[in-house]
Amino acid sequence: MKKKTKVVDIVLILIMIVMAASFLYPIIMILFNSFKKEIAISTNTVFELPTKETFAGIENYINALDSKGFFDSFIYSLFITVSSVLAICISCSMCAWFITRVKSKITSILYYLFVFSMVVPFQMVMYTLSKTADQLELNTPWNIWIIYLGFGAGLAVFMFTGFMKSIPLEIEEAAMIDGCNPIQTFFRIVMPMLKPTLVSVAILEAMWVWNDYLLPTLVLDIKEYKTIPMLIQYFKGSFGRVEMGPMMACIMLTIIPIVIVYLAGQKHIIKGVAAGAVKG
């Protein structure tokens, strides 16, 4: 049995290595091509390592930073991501606390509505969403976070509610006896205990919002505002020629911030997901 178990473990490890390599391969190729000259990317040498003849240095990165309004798009994406994640974490954690502590048919229905929203395809609502966003003037980077709050609430409430059920009610009762009102009890007692789930939700939602292309394209005024994923689609020269070098460099510059965020909080993700989906 032990030999069979070892064989199975080895096979699983090999499968995981192959899967990891298949996911990393496109990123590695983008990294290599971001240092190549334009002609090298456009020919059959796209899958080869940079050579002395094809190496362009950091020229593509300089062009990516200097053209197409990269810094403006970066600021838009950064503001949208930070504001959306803050809104989701604070609002959804308070909502989950209310659902968990107030037992009624209304809170039960509310919880299942949040869960149901997780399985509704975005394509079902994107046309009406675009028109509604224009009517409510939610079509700028400064208030699109309201839309992200609506779409991100399902997963966040589900995870927060699962973890909230594991928090002893006696701790909150003791805080109220000591003079804390409900708001003070939540922010001083409950929220610090939510740290693993808060970090997990923040990272998952940040990865989604930062990399999202479809929703900003439908809602924002493309002529005036472009997020980073939208900007990448506009690296075109004359006669529709795509500037592959600066585009590859821009993609790498886009990947770096979210990778740093993920690496900084990765240890909390599994812990938070498990706490939010299993406990209770």
Concise synopsis of the structure shown:
73% of the residues lie in helices and 0% in strands.
Mean pLDDT, all residues: 83
Secondary structure category? mainly alpha
Order of helices and strands: HHHHHHHHHHHHH
| CATH fold descriptor of the largest domain | MetI-like fold
Helix content: over 70%
Q: CATH class of the largest domain, anyone?
A: Mainly Alpha
Number of beta strands: 0
Describe the global form. Answer: globular
| Named CATH architecture of the largest domain | Orthogonal Bundle
**CATH homologous superfamily label of the largest domain:** MetI-like
Number of helices, counting only DSSP H or I runs of 4 residues or more: 13
- The structural domain count equals 2
How far from one another are the termini? Answer: 35 Å
| Low-confidence segments | 276-280
Q: Beta-sheet strand percentage?
A: under 5%
How does the major sheet shape up?
Answer: none
List keywords for this structure.
280 residues; mainly alpha; MetI-like fold; 2 domains; 13 helices; 73% helix; disordered C terminus
Written account of the structure:
- The protein has helices at residues 2-33, 38-42, 59-66, 70-101, 105-117, 126-135, 145-164, 169-177, 182-193, 195-211, 214-219, 228-232, 244-278.
- By secondary structure, it is an all-alpha fold.
- It folds into two domains: 2-57, no CATH class; 61-278, MetI-like fold (Orthogonal Bundle), CATH 1.10.3720.
- Helix 3 (59-66) crosses helix 13 (244-278) and helix 4 runs antiparallel to helix 10 (195-211).
- The two termini are 35 Å apart.
- The model is unreliable at 276-280 (pLDDT under 50).
